[in-house]
């Protein structure tokens, strides 16, 4: 009977510190860019399609036309284009855009180092 009348209660308090990592801050920034969606889409299609992809293809052609780089260059442009045409939110399209530009830059660097 005593346990129903007198109950014991232990309080435990745990304080968690939330860490804002670089990735979390980047995703929050990209999510806040939703009002600039049209500008990001224009940059992804025009900037990536007309500058980065053309530059990547030119470097591939000038450094020996190695076939292994073609699918990566085409895939990078396709991923950027498809994510924008699918009207995905900017917290998805902006990281995809930066990843595809990074892929193009890696292809350019690898092609240039293959000449040495």
Describe the structure using short key phrases.
single chain; 116 residues; mainly alpha; 5 helices; 0% strand
Give your account of this protein's structure.
The protein contains five helices and no strands. By secondary structure, it is an all-alpha fold. Helix 3 runs parallel beside helix 5.
* Shape, per Cα inertia axes: elongated
Report on the biggest sheet: none
From the alpha-carbon coordinates, what is the Rg to the nearest angstrom?
24 Å
N→C terminal distance: 87 Å
Q: How many beta-strand runs?
A: 0
State the order of secondary-structure elements, H for helix, E for strand: HHHHH
Report helical residue fraction: over 70%
Low-confidence stretches: none
What is the residue-mean pLDDT, rounded to a whole number? 87
- Oligomeric form: single chain
Percentage of residues in strands: under 5%
The helix tally amounts to: 5
Structural class: mainly alpha
């Amino acid at each position: 009977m005593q346990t129903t009348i007198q109950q014991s209660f232990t309080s435990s308090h745990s304080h968690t510190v939330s860490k804002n990592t670089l990735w979390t801050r980047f995703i929050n920034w990209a999510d806040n860019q939703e009002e600039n969606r049209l500008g990001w889409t224009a940059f992804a299609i025009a900037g990536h399609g007309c500058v980065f992809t053309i530059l990547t293809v030119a470097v591939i052609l000038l450094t020996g036309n190695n076939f292994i780089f073609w699918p990566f260059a085409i895939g990078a442009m396709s991923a950027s284009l498809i994510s924008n045409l699918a009207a995905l939110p900017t917290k998805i399209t902006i990281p995809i855009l930066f990843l595809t530009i990074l892929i193009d830059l890696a292809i350019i660097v690898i092609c240039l180092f293959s000449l040495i």
